[in-house]
Amino acid sequence: MGKLKVVIDRIICEGIGPCAEETDMIELDKKHKAVFLEPGKDKQQLFKEVEEKKKQVVEIELPIDKEEEIFRAAEACPVDAIFIYDAETGEQLYP
After folding, report:
1. How far is 55 from 7, CA to CA, in rounded Å?
2. Model-level pTM?
């Protein structure tokens, strides 16, 4: 598909956690908010970086199986706190 932009709205997120069950690329932090684990970044440092942010925005190119996981994670979110865009065109792909 190409490059995706994944946006996790940390205000909407209620920390219920089904997104984290769908992929190893999302974990809940100590505030029970979803965090997209960016490859190559230290998890604890990343948690600290996004702790006070209202949104986490990540642009990433993923293999198709990981793309499918991210879409499943977004679909599993009961409050629609995960948004997925085509990074090239800006088109919203989910929700």
Report:
1. 7
2. 0.95
